[in-house]
Amino acid sequence: MDNTSTEVKVVDALGITEDSGERIQYIVVKVGSENYGINIAYVDNIVRMQKITRVPRAQEYFRGIINLRGEVVPVMSLRRRMGLDDDEFTKDSRIIILKFEDNALLGVVVDSVREVVTLSENEIDEMGSEARSDSATFINGVGKNGEELISLLDFQKVIGEKEAV
After folding, report:
1. Is 164 inside any structural domain?
2. Among 97, 100, 104, CA closest to 75
3. pLDDT at position 161 over 70
4. Around 134, how many Cα atoms within 13 Å sit in the side-chain half-sphere?
5. Domain assignment of residue 163, yes or no
6. Which helix (H) or strand (E) holds 96?
7. How far separated are the first and last CA of the chain, in Å rounded?
8. Is the dihedral of CA 89, 91, 93, 94 positive or negative?
């Protein structure tokens, strides 16, 4: 039997082929009219909108702080950070609680949470250095989920102190 012309793809129990590369889950959120993906590895919790206490002299894109089960969590407006119109809170608005390496928590306000998608490396296009709009500086790639494009957020840039150029 000649195996040289036959290519076999091994499929695991989840239907993932070996050659699809690393698969990453993203929570797809709506901010303005755009879909953004947040790596699920950063997501600690998703909470409904609640009273946000303003903090004097904070950056203008920080909405304030919330009390989450006894812990004080700063809350950032993605709309303000990306230079978009101010937040309009609706019944669909949510605060995504993100947890970073040092266990620091940060809440980010989004217009709505849509779904969880799993993307493989070949479904993600990296952003080139030519992308220079305010919101594009926070994007590290674009995911393709069927016909839908999802801008993938780079939270190291979003929470960085340098202002978008």
Report:
1. no
2. 97
3. no
4. 9
5. no
6. strand 94-99
7. 61
8. positive
Give the count of domains, the chain: 1
pTM, two decimal places: 0.77
Taking the C-alpha atoms of 126, 131, 136 and 138 in order, what is their torsion angle to the nearest 10 degrees?
Answer: 60
The tens digit of pLDDT for each residue in 77-90 reads 999 888 888 888 89
- Identify the CATH number of the domain in which residue 145 sits: 2.40.50.180
| Residue range 49-102, pLDDT digits in tens | 999 999 998 888 999 999 999 999 999 999 988 888 888 889 999 999 999 888
Give the range of the structural domain holding residue 112, as residue numbers without chain letter.
Answer: 3-158
Spatial CB neighbours of 29, under 8 Å, sequence gap ≥ 6: 35, 36, 37, 38, 94, 96, 110, 111, 112, 113, 114
